[in-house]
Design goal:
- The structure holds two protein chains of two kinds.
- By secondary structure, chain A is an alpha/beta fold.
- Chain A is built from ten helices and ten strands.
- In chain A, helix 3 crosses helix 4, helix 3 packs parallel to helix 6 and helix 4 crosses helix 6.
- By secondary structure, chain B is mostly helical.
- Chain B has a single domain, classed as MetI-like (MetI-like fold), CATH 1.10.3720.
- Classes of the chains: A alpha/beta, B mainly alpha.
- At the A-B interface, helix 2, strand 6, helix 3 and helix 6 of A face helix 7 and helix 8 of B.
Amino acid sequence: MARSDGTEVTVRNLRVYISGRPILKGINLRATPGSILAIMGPSGSGKSTLIRVINRLIDLNPSATVEGEVYIGGLNVLSADPYDVRRLTAMVFQEPNPFPHLSIFDNVAIGPKLHGLAKSRADLEEIVRWALEKSQLWEEVKDRLADYPHQLSGGQRQRLSLARALALKPKVLLLDEPTANIDPVSTRKIEESLREIARDLMTTVIIVTHTPQQAARIADYIAVLYNGELVEYGPAREVILYPKNEFTKKILEGVI
Amino acid sequence: MAEPRHDKLFYYTLLPFASTSLAIVLLLASILAVNSLPAIERYGLSLLTRNVWSPVELDPEASDYGLLAPLLGTLVTATIATMASIPIAASLVYVSEEVLPARMLRVRSAISILVDVMAGMPTIVYGLWGALVLAPLLLNYVYQPLNKYFGFIPLFACSPYTGLNILTASLLLSIMITPFVFAVVRESYTQIPLSYREASLSLGTTKYEHFRIMLGIIKPSLIAGALLGFGRAASETVAVTLVVGNAFNLPYCLLSPGYTVSALIANQFNNAPLYPYMESVLLFSGAILLLLGLVSNLAGLIMLSRVKARV
């Protein structure tokens, strides 16, 4: 099953401007294979922009200008073909967005099909099942794989989006508040799965989260953004127990 | 909750205007139906199943009509035109929305404006261009080789003596309806939420793979565009009259001259009062055309509402 062999994400002096306004102001950080980096910060601090630079989805915004260096392993993200960058990454978004015209099975299978990951139908079925199990959705949909996403609840649709990303077995998994619409029990199970995936597949996981509790539960490292600046970055335990920055303290206390 | 009095006044003032278009369609349909009755009573269903056009002046008993050739001609030309216009329209959407970078907004707008201009051009201009430029070109460079090398296929088996035939009418129609199909597909395409675009691109799709996924999302609007285009192609008159050849041949071979219902009406209606039943037969064919247009347009609009509900 293993495909990811681990690739480090390095961000150096990253600056992003949208319509000339600075959104990220000289960010430096590293995310290592097999570990989970949680990015925290209040709304508008640049968290989503940061992960959209890593997979070059920022290119969809014609008014965005990006400066600095971002590497996935040896690949220079900012000068590479976006196609090559995105073949190394997968992303789960804040809002569930499974493709409405594809069945549950096909939504998960589309990535492996595009990447040529399955040699046979049996391979494909195995990947789909694995991804749905890791997303805590298999038991609920195993008898209705031909159904369409509109027949699922909001939380199920989000887990389907997660399965679609996991099925790629990416080297870098980017998650933008993936559990915002999911119930607490499923959230905990998904967090366990993410830990397993990071550990077993040596995937570099970068997760944007609003909740300090979630960061504490799953992250190995935490980066705190505030107003486009990286105000704190370090091992999760250190950041949570001994925050150095005032904003970090407020974020951890849930004040901002 | 009671409606405010001035809103009621506004509502009742506008109601007659709003109902006018529906009333016109109903009036049109009823006039066509009533005036078709003499032909239906005399010829019955054979009007639809026979290919005869034998008007005899002042002798009702000797006159004989069957609309099979123009009816089939209409269906064949409109179907080919629709099938040809879909890939052209989809390619235009691909170029304008995916190939050209987002920064080239002016070029994208230029494509849209150009296609809008195409939609607004008088159909007689298309007809003249079709008859004087397109037909001779197709005859020399397409139809003759097609007949020579693919003549074993019945659709191309007849010798192309003239460029004015069913295939020319179909291709000209496809050019004419492409702007409408393009407009429908492009509107739906640009309305696909960013979240689906991001999801598709985040999978590492090539532009082509991404476009295929996006087209899948708006598939009902492709079908809607095709149905609306079909309705338009079936009812197009002036341009088709100039290039279809106007002959009562059944469209077994696309390289032979043919007829469409609208071309038949345009050509024959001036003479119709001179011949018994001809006027009624033409109005009956008009009613069939109206029905065809209503069905294809309604189906198209239903498909469009489906795509709006989906994305």
